[in-house]
């Protein structure tokens, strides 16, 4: 089934449609039972790990989840006491979220990381996990530079992504980031912690960076 997802993504990206493949995948997942590799129906274990390690508490502060998918991480942050906004590019997955999550009141909405709404507020806590790495390098710089603008002064961002060496060649999605790409965030944000994440499931190299906006 993962091959099906790769084929859909490749078709869209070859047409310079860098995000549209998510909509087709979620439509097929919802209506045709396509297995979506990143959907687990529970909080991502790396998100839970870093939140527990940092003793993250919401205390009714505002949080934003970027590329929320089916909302597992958004609902987790809501359970920690945040007032959570969560967006995704796919209208289908946002409608799906609203159908399956009805208890905690997460605000799910459609938005594009490459063209964020002008009225988007600034947040105390931002979670970016595995979204930047879905963008080709040609589109990624704009998204990276947009992130600090949505964080309050004194606010934090947790960023989790796959990484690669600068000369390492990878094929298909995701497109892992290099450390030099991540370093551009430090022109506006302070890197407060950085941890390589190990996985027993695959050979991908991952990193979790925590940033603070001064």
Please specify the SSE layout and strand pairing.
Layout: H1 2-14, H2 20-32, H3 45-53, E1 62-66, H4 72-79, E2 83-88, H5 91-100, E3 107-110, E4 123-129, H6 137-146, E5 151-163, H7 179-183, E6 190-197, E7 205-212
Parallel strand pairs: 1-2, 1-4, 2-3, 4-5
Antiparallel strand pairs: 5-7, 6-7
Helix pairs in contact: 1-2, 2-5
**What share of residues are in beta strands?**
15-25%
CATH topology: the name is Rossmann fold
Number of domains: 1
* CATH-level-2 architecture: 3-Layer(aba) Sandwich
The main sheet comes to: 7 strands, mixed
Rg, please? Answer: 16 Å
Report, as a whole number of angstroms, the end-to-end distance: 44 Å
Average predicted confidence as pLDDT: 90
Low-pLDDT residue spans: none
Q: Assign the CATH class.
A: Alpha Beta
* Helical run tally: 7
CATH evolutionary superfamily: Vaccinia Virus protein VP39
Order of helices and strands: HHHEHEHEEHEHEE
Q: List how many beta strands DSSP finds.
A: 7
Structure class: alpha/beta
Q: Share of helix among residues?
A: 25-40%
Query: Quick one: overall form?
Result: globular
Order of strands across the widest beta sheet? 3-2-1-4-5-7-6
